[in-house]
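Quick one: sequence plus guanosine-5'-triphosphate SMILES, need structure tokens.
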Amino acid sequence: MTERESRVSPGRDKKTPLYLHEERGPLGDGAETAVLVGVGLAGDSVRSVERSLDELAELARTAGARVVGRFRQRRTRIEGSTYIGKGKVQALAAALAESDARLVLFDNNLAPAQGRNLEKALRTKVIDRSELILHIFAIHARTETAKLQVELAQLEYTLPRLRRLWDHLSRLGGGIGTRGPGETQLEVDRRRVRERIDFLKKSLKKLAASRDVQRKGRRACATAALVGYTNAGKSTLLNLLSGANVKAEDELFSTLDTTSRVVELGRDYPVVLSDTVGFIRKLPHALVASFRATLAEVVEADLLVHVVDASNEDAEGQILTVHEVLEELGASDKPTVLVLNKIDRVRDPLVVNHLTRRFGPAVVASARTGRGADEIRAEIREALVAMRREVALDIPAAESAEVARVYREGEVIERRFEGDRVLLRVRLPIPSLERCRRKGFVAASSR
Ligand SMILES: Nc1nc2c(ncn2[C@@H]2O[C@H](COP(=O)(O)OP(=O)(O)OP(=O)(O)O)[C@@H](O)[C@H]2O)c(=O)[nH]1
Ligand SMILES: [Mg+2]
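Reply:
Sure thing.
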């Protein structure tokens, strides 16, 4: 290897062989050694390519691989057949032949044919960034929904690449059949994969429907969702604010499932706070699409709490990535509380200035030391106070003081009398709504 990787620590105890996809088998011999390849295109600074490679190394570490080298190339445009130029392919092949690397991890996402051509030329397995992220999702998925979502994303990714799998198999079998029976089998496989995709989509729809029912049960309570770049400290913050015990680890994508906890914002003022999957640069689209069920919490929340790792030197780029993903989800207009987390690790006082100048007011916090917790609660509360929710109320006419209070606090849209009851359709601030819920005034149709 021409370049030694020193910053990335060798594999961890929890080493899991890299599986692309169950049927494809492990990608190496257990002790995964990998070479990283990053291409800077026009508009990418040297620094941004390096940062992205650092992140790829982190992803590799999370997946249980040990990085033994890095290759970089600058190009004005992508080489159609192999992404990197011919010369670079040769140099890489020569370096690989001399090393014990079993895996090439590409930071850029490859078209199916590019992956195939590179594997042929390098005689080494090639995995791109999307595939690596999918792999990590697969090993971290715990709940049924997360597992189905990951499998769906993997199959969507694999479908246009099935031919590559067949190339592998035919090589294993001593170069038998590139066309003929192979081609027919490929068609059969494509059909099977499509059938499985349909099945997974249907199963996820069913699960989403039952979750909707559960969510309706807590509609009277305000909801907030933690969003942010992966490893920003979302789960740690949920634990701090709610006293929960959600898994929080120094690895990427440690959370894949949604956990919701009640957080008290003050006397009788609860909010349901949800922790969910983190975002990353170049997040595979198939993943965003198939994680819609999990991300429904984000889309439907009254408020977002955007957690930023302020100690990361690319905090700004990470914030922009989160904005992009929120946009893709249609959740970018929601009121948001910005939290600059991990402040205990920030040495440069100008960082906070810079970030707030660019992105607006923020709470400076440390989920580890507890700094900023009260301020975050206060900010969430303030943002929710300004919000109204439309609801149907059913109040005994005898409780005229309560009816008067609803008129005072909310905005009544419609009023009807039914026997000895007053039926109101009203836009209420969330604390008032909470009160009505406790008193049993929320009509069945709004519950
Ligand atoms: N120094 C410091 N470390 C923190 C702070 N908040 C979180 N961490 C650490 O950062 C790592 C990631 O924290 P998590 O809470 O798992 O982050 P996350 O955003 O939930 O990450 P994913 O679920 O993987 O997307 C853990 O090792 C935490 O202990 C903080 O304020 N200061
Ligand atoms: Mg987490």
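The pocket of guanosine-5'-triphosphate (ligand 1) is lined by residues 228, 230-236, 248-250, 252-255, 278, 341-342, 344-345, 366-368 (CB under 6 Å). Residues 22-139 form a domain with the Rossmann fold fold (CATH 3.40.50.11060).
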